[in-house]
Amino acid sequence: ILFNALKSVFEPLEKRQFTPMIVNNEKEVEKLKQENPEKKYKSKEDVISINLSQYEGFEVESFESFNEACDEFYSSKVKNEITGIQEAAWNKKVSKFSKRLEKQEETLHNFEKTIEDSQMKGELLFTNYVQVDNILNVIKGAREKDYGWKEIGKTLKDAKKSGMADAQIFESMDPLGNITLRIDDVSIALDSKKSIPDNAEVYYEKAKKAKRKIKGALIAIENTKRQLADMEAKKEKAMSNIMVPQKRVKKNLKWYEKLRWFVSSDGILVVCGRDAGTNEAVVKKYLEQNDIYLHADIHGAPSVVAKVQSDSLNDNLLKELGEFSASFSSAWSKNFTSQDVYWVEPDQVSKTPVSGEFVPKGAFIIRGHRNYIRGAKLEISIGIVEYDGEKRIMAGPTDAMKHHTNKFVTIKPGFTKKEKIAKDILSRINEDNILSLDDVVRVLPSGKCDFV
Do 164 and 235 belong together in one domain? Predict the structure, then answer.
């Protein structure tokens, strides 16, 4: 009997009778929760290749192959996790505006209440004019006889206790002569040194001031409602577009992407070396007769080649070239804010040393006059640009970046590690999910950074 039972278990495997499926008992669990809400029930989900008795009664979704079943099962889990993370992030953004709206509406309500309360208090002073005026006259008479505020307050309290009609609205008096009256269950503060019209005017002015503020509050509320609606629409769109991330295929880099590069506002391609090897290549392979050569005037700077003739240079282009050359030099890691840069013609760049001189790999000898770009700013912007038929990450001068995209961040020499700032940059510019963290790290200057 045992043998036959085991044989029946393994028979589907022997005959390769697989029935790939995803099973879950969510409906059953939901039903149990409704029947007994006090008890905790946990739903179960699994992916299997053959029907198992332990899942009898479970909801079943069948597939052609086990691989398909696994893909659906695990991609759903990943998507749910991503959805949860994204929803929490979007809820935080939406919450910012909903909380602001709540606060603004509360402020509006307070203005409306101030108007109502202040007008009511002003009117109560006039509708109870005689009674209030009698109390003010008593206080005025006592002050003329040199009674102190404390003594006057005690006298009015005693008069109230003894049943004097006018004194029944008196509540208290402070050391400065300000009194509090209670009329029709409304507490009204008065300056006993002022007349009833003057005291009422204080309340009417308070109501007018609140009325003036209401207009601004209503405009602010409408703006926030519009911003909230926009953010909710963005959230809805983003949530509906959530997809399981696919494994990013490593793309082949263009020759200039293997170096440091940017495209100027004028469309000029500019490249520089990353290390001694690429410094050598920049000059030997890419420096042509119609180009110019740049170098920061500091030890530890790359060779920079701009694909432009010297007679086509202008002030804006020189500014961009200077910033690029300075920012990717050792001046960045030294936390400099500016650095001198020079440029020369290609025929001034040589690898041939004078007798007895050694030129290391990546270094070159510059002969003749050097043209200086003084005080080039150390600052680099990073963004995604459309160039050479594709979207690419580019790091270059801010003016050049503004010409090619409006989605970028700007950094300067600082104190934040590259890896941390790279994560922040990735989250800010990678809306289309075309970049990896390595892509961002690769274009950053050598050294720590901070956002501008």
Answer: yes
* Judgement on whether residues 166 and 82 belong to the same structural domain of the protein: no
Site of tokens 């000898």: 365
3-class SS of residue 120? helix
Angle at alpha carbon of residue 96, lines to 94 and 99, rounded to 5°: 105
Contact predicate 118/203, CB 8 Å: yes
Least confident stretch, 198-202, 372-376, 433-437: 433-437
Same domain, 70 and 104: no
Alpha carbon of 450 to those of 174, 232, 441: distances in Å? 57, 32, 14
- Asked which of 52, 68, 89 is the last residue of a domain, the reply is 89
Token pair recorded at residue 331: 């001046």
Supply the DSSP string of 38-69, one letter for each residue.
TS-----EEEESS--GGGTT-EEEE-SSHHHH
> Rounded to whole angstroms, how far apart are CA atoms 391 and 395?
13
Q: What is the SS3 assignment for 411?
A: strand
For the chain, the helix, strand and coil percentages under 3-state DSSP, each to the nearest 5: 50, 20, 30
Domain count, the chain: 3
Q: How far apart are CA 87 and CA 441, in angstroms?
A: 28
Say whether both 11 and 114 belong to one domain: no
261 and 406 fall within a common domain: yes
Structure-token pair, residue 420? 């941390």
Q: Backbone phi, then psi, for 181, in 5-degree steps?
A: -110, 150
Question: Same structural domain for residues 110 and 184?
Answer: yes
Answer yes or no: is 248 within a domain: no
Tell me which of 68, 89, 110 is where a domain ends.
Answer: 89
For 212, the domain range is 97-241
Residues 187 and 117 in one domain: yes
Asked if the structure places residue 250 within a domain, the reply is: no
Q: Do 437 and 248 form a contact (C-beta atoms < 8 A)?
A: no
**152/166 Cα distance (integer angstroms):** 15
In a domain, 246, yes or no: no
The tokens for 144 are: 């003329």
Q: So what's the pLDDT on residue 83?
A: 67
Write the DSSP string, 123-173: HHHHHTHHHHHHHHHHHHHHHHTT--HHHHHHHHHHHHHTT-TGGGGEEEE
- SS3 category, 342: strand
**Predicted local distance difference test score (pLDDT) of residue 336:** 97
What is residue 180's three-state secondary structure? strand
In tens, the pLDDT along 21-69 reads 777 766 665 666 676 777 665 556 677 776 666 677 677 777 777 777 7
The CA-based dihedral angle spanning residues 36, 42, 47, 49, taken in that order and rounded to the nearest 10 degrees:
-60
Q: Are residues 55 and 117 in the same domain?
A: no
In a domain, 113, yes or no: yes
